[in-house]
Amino acid sequence: MIEVPAQPYSFALDPERTALVVIDMQRDFVEHGGFGAALGNDVTLLQAIIPAVADLIALFRVNAWPILHTRECHLPDLSDCPPAKRLRGRGGLRIGDDGPMGRLLVRGEPGASIIPECAPIDGEMVIDKPGKGMFCNTDCEAMLRARGITHLVFAGVTTEVCVQTSMREANDRGFECLLVTDCTESYFPEYKAAVVSMVIAQGGIVGWATDLGTLKDACK
Length: 220
Ligand code: C5J
Hints:
- The chain has 9 helices and 10 strands.
- With 220 residues, the protein is an alpha/beta fold.
- It binds dicarbonimidic diamide (C5J).
């Protein structure tokens, strides 16, 4: 076991049973012209964590530990996108509409792809998820269980939407969850801070939190 200094107390990482989960590092969330920008968000906030996320991915690759990448996206006919999701909000462009990077949040469109700095390589798990949480209408749980994974390290965007939802879903399924605080970001810094506080409150009610440097030192 690797003892990772963390909050609210050290996280016992079992290298044989741990996977990195990289949530939605897609062009649609971090680049201008994507879904996040269409909602009026400042995407440059998210771009700041790209080097750290790439570094975390490299840490798992060098140790030959499993990595699961998620993409929030929908089938081209939007049959997996509930109207409640598509019609939410009063902005201009919606899921499925044409944008500068193709149809927003649609599988196979340029905007739905993972940014090159964080792109999966052969052998890594990739799931397309229609919900905010990674377990909603995906076979992600079966993929993790088949590999004997019990511990998950979380990174990606956005902290209070897809990262938090996925982490809570994982916690309810019995996975031990660690959030890497400088490898996740929100369009709203105060929401990120709130999520980190909520995760580790009450003795780690959702899981643990640490930073990349601390995790890397622990894994030396
Ligand atoms: C959002 C996500 N924010 N990946 N998706 O709609 O967090």
